[in-house]
Automatic annotation (TrEMBL):
<protein>
    <submittedName>
        <fullName>RNA polymerase sigma factor SigF</fullName>
    </submittedName>
</protein>
<dbReference type="InterPro" id="IPR007630">
    <property type="entry name" value="RNA_pol_sigma70_r4"/>
</dbReference>
<dbReference type="InterPro" id="IPR014284">
    <property type="entry name" value="RNA_pol_sigma-70_dom"/>
</dbReference>
<comment type="similarity">
    <text>Belongs to the sigma-70 factor family.</text>
</comment>
<keyword id="KW-0238">DNA-binding</keyword>
<dbReference type="Pfam" id="PF04545">
    <property type="entry name" value="Sigma70_r4"/>
</dbReference>
<keyword id="KW-0804">Transcription</keyword>
<keyword id="KW-0805">Transcription regulation</keyword>
<dbReference type="InterPro" id="IPR007627">
    <property type="entry name" value="RNA_pol_sigma70_r2"/>
</dbReference>
<feature type="domain" description="HTH cro/C1-type">
    <location>
        <begin position="233"/>
        <end position="256"/>
    </location>
</feature>
<dbReference type="InterPro" id="IPR013324">
    <property type="entry name" value="RNA_pol_sigma_r3/r4-like"/>
</dbReference>
<dbReference type="InterPro" id="IPR036388">
    <property type="entry name" value="WH-like_DNA-bd_sf"/>
</dbReference>
<keyword id="KW-0749">Sporulation</keyword>
<dbReference type="InterPro" id="IPR000943">
    <property type="entry name" value="RNA_pol_sigma70"/>
</dbReference>
<dbReference type="InterPro" id="IPR014322">
    <property type="entry name" value="RNA_pol_sigma-B/F/G"/>
</dbReference>
<dbReference type="Pfam" id="PF04542">
    <property type="entry name" value="Sigma70_r2"/>
</dbReference>
<dbReference type="InterPro" id="IPR007624">
    <property type="entry name" value="RNA_pol_sigma70_r3"/>
</dbReference>
Length: 270
């Protein structure tokens, strides 16, 4: 059973893009879960499924923009949720894959924010306690008609007053004031960044740039092009994949391998 990419098949007349995606997804899942499919065919189908549903991941990731994390990082985290969904999906249940995958993708992104999105590293128990305090505080405020005291929160959650205080204080580690923030929303208003000095990044990194030039010259043309597109033209991995004609996952592997190679070479020079 052969697997071909979605780009190799001409669109069927009368079908919308969504319908074509669903049909192609069903075909790929038939190969991925087929008893007569070889391991190579299953892996190819899995990779094609990832590429086919990357727009869904990007759509989910956009919901979490402007929360302090780069969109591309959120897409990469969401892709982990997509892979988990592909591996667990049972097409016999009659559920659309996008419906099944969306909660898993969003859950993976939320978990990333919970574990990584803190300005200062906070233990998991305090992160969870903070969430409990928020939920209990909302319920008690509604029932009491006022903000609850730490003791009332402690009784509602089942912990000590000291733990409540510690949980409330840990909330300060989740949200920090941006240096770009200003006292008003007017264009050109002074920000906190204007009040402090800045290092010249060009001078700071000149030694690194000079050290890495000969290493870049030794890279294969494809790896050098990927670095150029990613870090000098600010293209996403999906855009690079389309540019050089490979999958986004393959671009990610090549990029990680190349960066690791450069990092090792720099360490050997130092």
């Amino acid at each position: 059973m052969a697997v071909t990419s979605g780009d190799d098949q001409a669109p069927e007349e009368g079908l919308t893009g969504v319908e074509l995606t669903r049909r192609r997804s069903a075909e790929l899942f038939a190969v991925f879960g087929g008893d007569d499919s070889s391991p190579a065919q299953r892996e190819s189908a899995r990779e094609s499924l990832v590429h086919l549903h990357l727009p869904l991941v990007e759509h989910c990731a956009r919901r979490f923009r402007n929360r302090g994390e780069p969109l591309e990082d959120l897409v990469q985290v969401g892709t982990i949720g997509l892979l988990k969904s592909i591996d667990r999906f049972d097409s016999d249940r009659g559920v659309e894959f996008s419906t099944y995958a969306t909660p898993t993708i969003i859950g993976e992104i939320k978990r990333y924010f919970r574990d990584k999105g803190w300005a200062i590293r906070v233990p998991r128990r305090l992160q969870e306690l903070r969430m409990q305090i928020g939920a209990a505080s909302a319920e008690l405020t509604q029932s009491l008609g006022r903000s609850p005291t730490p003791r009332e929160l402690a009784e509602a959650i089942g912990c000590t007053v000291e733990e409540i205080v510690e949980g409330i204080e840990s909330s300060n580690a989740y949200s920090t004031l941006s240096l770009d923030a200003s006292d008003n929303d007017e264009d050109g208003a002074a920000t906190m960044l204007d009040a402090i000095g800045q290092d010249d990044e060009g001078l700071e990194h000149v030694e690194i740039r000079e050290s890495i030039k000969p290493l870049l010259d030794r890279l294969a043309p494809r790896e050098k092009k990927i670095l150029l597109l990613r870090f000098f033209k600010n293209m996403t991995q999906s855009q690079i994949a389309e540019e050089i004609g490979v999958s986004q996952m393959h671009v990610s592997r090549l990029l990680n391998r190349t960066l690791e190679q450069l990092r090792t070479s720099l360490e050997e020079q130092s």
